[in-house]
Design brief:
single chain; mainly alpha; 7 helices; phosphatidylglycerophosphatase activity; transmembrane; Phosphatidylglycerophosphatase A
Length: 158
């Protein structure tokens, strides 16, 4: 029996892939990782105009493909549960154009986690058929897009 390889949080690639260590939570690392993305969003992205916000998302996605691919290779596990950079980008996408108020933040968070956990089509298909760093990232991006659509539709109907 081989000993599982643990991430080296002194390695900046692993540190970012593991959401500054938030993915090390022993239970529900995806949820804890998503929670850790909230203060970063609050301090850095909340209220940012659309174009720079989208730039951060695109750059974060591209960076995430590299981070997730390298960390998966280093750990010898595809889409290790502690890799949560994909949750960070997915949540930030879900919170794009968010109406003001903590209720909306909570709503976006819950919807993103719901889509990420339940994995309705096409998320489940992407999760099973697209591999590597891109595969790790894309299912969470689609979950974020679905949450974004529901949040925006809800806001429009209200």
């Amino acid at each position: 029996m081989t000993t599982p390889v643990k991430p080296n949080l002194r390695n900046p690639i692993h540190l970012l892939a593991f959401g500054l260590g938030s993915g090390m939570a022993p239970k529900a690392p995806g949820t804890f990782g998503t929670l850790a993305a909230l203060p970063v969003w609050w301090l850095c992205l909340q209220g940012v105009p659309t174009l720079p916000y989208l730039g951060v998302l695109v750059a974060g996605f591209a960076l995430g493909v590299v981070l997730c691919e390298q960390t998966s290779r280093d750990l010898g596990v595809h889409d290790h549960g502690g890799i949560v950079w994909d949750e960070w980008i997915g949540l930030w996408l879900a919170l794009l154009w968010l109406p003001s108020g903590w209720g909306w933040v909570l709503y976006g968070f819950v919807l993103f986690r719901l889509f990420d956990i339940v994995k309705p089509w096409p998320i489940r298909w992407l999760d099973k058929h697209v591999h590597g760093g891109f595969g790790i990232m894309i299912d969470d991006v689609v979950a974020g897009l679905m949450a974004l659509l529901v949040v925006q539709l809800t806001a429009w109907l209200m």
